[in-house]
């Protein structure tokens, strides 16, 4: 018996795929309870929860990655269901970024599949422009996520050969709703949850403490001494490389050189140019890692910070660089080099992490340690039993586009291989 027929036969005996008529005592097959749904789903009620059958893939996350794979599927005539815990698309961009944010890479490296940025956009689109682009993208491909749906559990049912995805309405403890499908695409990304550092004394700090996910602008900190913990793009926009070199974007120049030169050679060239432009950053407290910027990105996912003005503030002394924190006592911060300074506010630019291990019951595709695919790019997009990942490549939106196209093609081949799908998918 083929997997499709076996799946259909097994689910006929599972109570979650059966609904109860209010006027009759006998059970009706779930297909007879069909109601018109935008996601082409069938609803069934049992004592456990409300269950929807989804004919196409289930996508968890309505950020750029979720939108990209949904569009690629749509292009091939395959519908999908996107579950999003927030009330909008690209919630990280819309709700958890500062006001003056812009893309750090040129727009041509940040396009989603099948739709370029508007021609009148600047080289580095603003946050507002990027969000407008994503909203236009969703509208163009008719993508309508189901908002305020927090996925609390997703697991492959070995008996039914299907994925069960359980959700609750965000912010409530309401009824559990379960969605069932042959395919599950994880698109929650590398930056799903804010990382809160464990610093001795931080909880007792009497001033303001916020994570950059809640930071909007510096106006609230006028006249205050602020400690920024972290040295990534959110914390300070200078680390190693200027945003542009030799009249070209640093990223674009890197990609061009990588066509002919190995990574370690490109790294050496980038660092030589950076030193000529910025000087010795170590004398200002910015020590360079042993690995070059591209090698470090490939091995650890740590992105080199591109300078858009912060380095000049460091050179002038407006911004001081300090080593690690030993502890915090009241408003005083004790640093590893023995210096003690007082602050009015602390901004935690300590980044984000994947939340996949908290809800996805899978030990093959994703690591339980960091919630990222176990296999490095370009081999981390596909797991077993119809499980996929998109947006976990550590290569930004370029990696997202590659994965989205691969996933859509792979699922399309499965549809074509079967020819006419069984009724369970109609």
UniProtKB/TrEMBL annotation:
Give GO MF terms, alphabetically. Answer: flavin adenine dinucleotide binding; indole-3-pyruvate monooxygenase activity
Name the cofactor(s).
FAD
* Organism superkingdom: Eukaryota
This enzyme's EC code(s): 1.14.13.168
Q: Which terms are listed as keywords in the entry?
A: FAD, Flavoprotein, Monooxygenase, NADP, Oxidoreductase
* Catalytic reactions of this protein: indole-3-pyruvate + NADPH + O2 + H(+) = (indol-3-yl)acetate + CO2 + NADP(+) + H2O
Q: What's one GO BP annotation on this UniProt entry?
A: auxin biosynthetic process
Alphabetical list of Pfam families matching this protein: Pyr_redox_3
Family note? Belongs to the FMO family.
Q: What is this protein called?
A: indole-3-pyruvate monooxygenase
Look up and give the organism this protein is from. Answer: Panicum miliaceum (Proso millet)
């Amino acid at each position: 018996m083929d997997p499709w027929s076996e799946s259909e036969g097994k689910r006929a005996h599972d109570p979650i795929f059966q609904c109860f008529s209010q006027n009759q005592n006998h059970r009706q097959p779930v297909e007879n309870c069909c109601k018109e749904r935008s996601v082409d789903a069938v609803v069934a009620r049992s004592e456990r929860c409300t269950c929807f059958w989804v004919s196409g893939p289930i996508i968890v996350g309505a950020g750029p990655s979720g939108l990209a794979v949904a569009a690629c599927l749509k292009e091939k005539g395959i519908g999908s269901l996107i579950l999003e815990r927030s009330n909008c698309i690209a919630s990280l961009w819309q709700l958890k970024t500062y006001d003056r944010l812009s893309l750090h890479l040129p727009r041509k490296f940040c396009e989603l599949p099948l739709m370029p940025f508007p021609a009148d956009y600047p080289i580095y689109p603003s946050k507002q422009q990027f969000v407008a682009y994503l909203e236009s993208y969703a509208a163009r491909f008719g993508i309508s996520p189901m908002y305020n749906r927090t996925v609390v559990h997703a697991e492959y049912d070995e008996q039914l050969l299907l994925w069960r995805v359980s959700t609750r309405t965000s912010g409530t403890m309401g009824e559990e709703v379960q969605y069932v499908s042959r395919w599950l695409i994880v698109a929650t990304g590398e930056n799903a949850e804010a990382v809160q550092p464990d610093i001795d004394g931080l909880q007792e700090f009497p001033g303001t403490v916020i994570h950059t996910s809640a930071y909007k602008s510096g106006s609230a900190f006028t006249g205050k001494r602020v400690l920024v913990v972290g040295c990534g793009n959110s914390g300070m926009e200078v680390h190693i490389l200027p945003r542009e070199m030799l009249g070209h974007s640093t990223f674009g120049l890197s990609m061009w050189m990588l066509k002919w030169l190995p990574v370690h050679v490109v790294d050496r060239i980038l660092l030589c140019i950076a030193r000529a432009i910025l000087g010795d950053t170590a004398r200002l407290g910015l020590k360079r890692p042993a690995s070059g910027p591209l090698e470090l990105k490939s091995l650890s996912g740590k992105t080199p910070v591109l300078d858009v003005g912060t380095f000049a503030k460091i050179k002038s002394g407006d911004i001081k660089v300090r080593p690690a924190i030993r502890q915090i006592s009241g408003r005083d911060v004790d640093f590893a080099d023995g210096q003690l300074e007082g602050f009015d506010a602390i901004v935690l630019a300590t980044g984000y992490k994947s939340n996949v291990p908290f809800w996805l019951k899978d030990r093959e595709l994703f690591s339980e340690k960091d919630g990222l695919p176990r296999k490095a790019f370009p081999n981390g997009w596909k797991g077993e039993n119809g499980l996929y990942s998109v947006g976990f490549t550590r290569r930004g939106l370029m990696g997202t586009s590659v994965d989205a196209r691969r996933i859509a093609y792979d699922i399309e081949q499965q549809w074509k291989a079967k020819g006419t799908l069984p009724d369970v998918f109609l």
